[in-house]
């Protein structure tokens, strides 16, 4: 699958078990996340891929019709979300719902991931 020393095999299998269209979206998002910073470490928790640096930064949650790129401290990213991509009403978490490959905005997603990572540096 995606060859990188910071990936874990269980995430490879998680992705392979998804429907083809969702698999493609998840693979692309995984690549965006890992390319955002060499500091991010891939983990598999709560039955989904999570990415951590000094605590959890973001996660990928796949369903039958979409993939959520979620942020543990998403409420703190709202001011940085100039494209108004973040959704959710929880106390801290927010997510971006991706239904097809055309929904992927690599630059905007990378910016939010970097901002989320910066929150964990303090």
The radius of gyration is 13 Å
Strand order of the largest sheet: 1-2-3-4-5
The oligomeric state is: single chain
| Cα shape | globular
> What is the succession of H and E elements?
HHEEEEEH
CATH arch. level architecture: Alpha-Beta Complex
Give the termini separation. 34 Å
Describe what is shown at a glance.
This protein has 122 residues and is of the alpha+beta class. It contains three helices and five strands.
Describe this structure in words.
It contains 3 helices and 5 strands, in the order ααβββββα. The protein is an alpha+beta fold. The model has no long low-confidence stretch (mean pLDDT 93). The longest helix is centred in the first third of the chain and has 17 residues, at 20-36. The protein has helices at 9-16, 20-36, 106-119, and strands at residues 41-45, 48-52, 56-62, 67-71, 94-98. A hairpin with a 3-residue loop joins strand 2 and strand 3 (56-62). The protein has one domain (9-119): Aspartate Aminotransferase, domain 1 (Alpha-Beta Complex), CATH 3.90.1150. It has a 5-stranded antiparallel beta sheet. Helix 2 packs across helix 3.
Record the SSE blueprint.
Blueprint: H1 9-16, H2 20-36, E1 41-45, E2 48-52, E3 56-62, E4 67-71, E5 94-98, H3 106-119
Antiparallel strand pairs: 1-2, 2-3, 3-4, 4-5
Helix pairs in contact: 2-3
Note the main attributes of this structure.
122 residues; Aspartate Aminotransferase, domain 1
């Amino acid at each position: 699958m995606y060859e990188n020393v910071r990936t874990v095999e269980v995430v490879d299998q998680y992705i392979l078990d998804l429907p083809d269209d969702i698999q493609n979206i998840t693979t692309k998002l995984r690549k965006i996340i890992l390319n955002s910073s060499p500091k991010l470490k891939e983990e598999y928790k709560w039955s989904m891929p999570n990415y951590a640096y000094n605590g959890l930064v973001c996660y990928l949650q796949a369903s039958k019709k979409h993939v959520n790129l979620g942020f543990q401290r998403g409420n703190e990213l709202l001011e940085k979300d100039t494209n108004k991509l973040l959704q959710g009403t929880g106390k801290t978490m927010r997510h971006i719902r991706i239904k097809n490959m055309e929904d992927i905005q690599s630059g905007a997603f990378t910016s939010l991931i970097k901002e989320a990572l910066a929150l964990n540096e303090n």
